[in-house]
Amino acid sequence: MNIIVDAMGGDNAPEEIVKGCIMAANDFGEIITLVGKKDIISEHLKKAGYNGDRIKIQNAEEVISGDDEPTTAIRQKKDSSLRVGLDMLHKGQGDVMVSAGNTGALITGATLIVKRIKGVRRVALAPLMPAETGCFLLVDGGANVESSAAFLKQFAIMGSIYMEKIMHIKNPRVGLVNIGSEEEKGTEDVTEANRLLKEIPINYTGYIEGREIPCGAVDVVVCDGFTGNVILKFMEGMGIVIKRMLKGIFFKNLKTKIAALMVKGGINELGKTLDYTEYGGAPLLGCTKPVVKAHGSSNAKAFYHAIRQSIDMVNNNLVDTISENINKY
Amino acid sequence: MNIIVDAMGGDNAPEEIVKGCIMAANDFGEIITLVGKKDIISEHLKKAGYNGDRIKIQNAEEVISGDDEPTTAIRQKKDSSLRVGLDMLHKGQGDVMVSAGNTGALITGATLIVKRIKGVRRVALAPLMPAETGCFLLVDGGANVESSAAFLKQFAIMGSIYMEKIMHIKNPRVGLVNIGSEEEKGTEDVTEANRLLKEIPINYTGYIEGREIPCGAVDVVVCDGFTGNVILKFMEGMGIVIKRMLKGIFFKNLKTKIAALMVKGGINELGKTLDYTEYGGAPLLGCTKPVVKAHGSSNAKAFYHAIRQSIDMVNNNLVDTISENINKY
């Protein structure tokens, strides 16, 4: 397997990306191709003391930054690490691509270059999010601002397949985000999607309200990309605030510092539950080849997990399974 | 002033409602009219030892439950506490109404019976939510599933007036929920609302992403009712989960219990920040008379705060100020 990695994407590129790839190459035994400025990448590989043969470099002179407008960047920055990586994936010069770069550009590029699976209406971003009990997949986390009932139905099918094949959850529970539990509540798209989801052989448990999401009431949370992105970022914001408040509580004085030591393990666990960046990358569901969006602030360890996730996606034939099932219902 | 109170609405009615009203009658010196089953209310007043003359009772034989379909309930349950209370408010037999009952029925009833201020396109539910620094008003928290740009503009104006007049925040910062900071990002309604909000004399600070909301980046968070309701309930759910996890951490063994005692004050403060029910009721913005939705799970103290809030709304001429400003821009 050859894993294509955008070496220049994200806040900590390329240093942390390179470090994560070295760890992954050593542990997983697959080939990794780092795409980006050859000199800089070589330097970082050298600096990290890597002298194996599993990491290759593909030169790309340009970089798409977080501020670049996605469509323009993909069309104009033809020699950017993100674009070159996607071109390689499209041509079969790799099996999966991982990037911590510009999310919009990755989604746009994956749609335009790698293309959608036949029958898939929209590519969805599907971050894995922490919950009180385990975790859940949020589809769509922001790829599609507006999502019709037909899109929502496909998000549910793809999300369900992901949780079953990659997270090994049998018969994953799928919930549709709404603002009440009554059948006819919500937007037209949501009520129509509710009808569609009842007719297909997934474990659809009905509407889910915001209150039930953090408990882990379902394994797949389906919603339009606007709502999903607000949930994703609101959770991130609350995590940051609560961590900062806990710090304030525990670092107040000597007594509270001692208390902190006494509950250290538990508080660390809580911190992990509040930090969705701990949960690896977000797969792009619906492309003809697997693509993983690693969090923009990924450090080496987070990126290492995103690579493991990308390997799982290839080994478990995620794309084929989606392709086989998406047109059935 | 005469405050009309739905004595039968909410999870803890009528006992906690009656208790809260007794506290409020004693402290604020206004007349309170409890609407509901006379015998039961009298019994609770007696049980609580109330023998003042500031609390009146208006009999109403029916009760609208949380499961009732709002429009049907308002039309058919003509002798329900909620409907009778709104009728009284409409007829001028009271100055403000407070209810912890069925949210949908209260919004529908307020719109149909008390009616909208001339020029107001939609009534909005505006819960006050806790943030790291202070609190913010969420408009709309769920009254309008879909909200056009014109609605969003009015939510911003009404929310801004509320925070200025009732919460005494000078020049309140107003943010519009979106999934990015770029001008053209988001739905058509949101980008159009962004243009409209720039043209009016409120302190509009632009788009706000989910991440910035819990920090208290703005005083008024404007969004459609679907997104607002998801935010509201997601925050509630996260609060419940985090409190439960903290309990688990601190009640594990003797050592952790001692640690709990050492940081008790701080943890209690954190608990309050996580619990939006602590923040009083949600005003309905845009009606010709002030209406306050108290949280369904309100206890006596929460209801007491909702009554204080309703008095503030009357004393500070909220309705008149909205009426004077809503058609100006």
From TrEMBL, chains A, B:
* Gene Ontology molecular function, alphabetical: phosphate:acyl-[acyl carrier protein] acyltransferase activity
Q: What is this enzyme's catalytic activity, as reactions?
A: a fatty acyl-[ACP] + phosphate = an acyl phosphate + holo-[ACP]
Pfam families attached to this UniProt entry:
FA_synthesis
Keywords linked to the UniProt accession: Acyltransferase, Cytoplasm, Lipid biosynthesis, Lipid metabolism, Phospholipid biosynthesis, Phospholipid metabolism, Transferase
Complex formation:
Homodimer. Probably interacts with PlsY.
Q: Which NCBIfam families match?
A: plsX
Question: Which protein is depicted?
Answer: Phosphate acyltransferase
Q: Please report the organism this UniProt entry assigns to the protein.
A: Monoglobus pectinilyticus
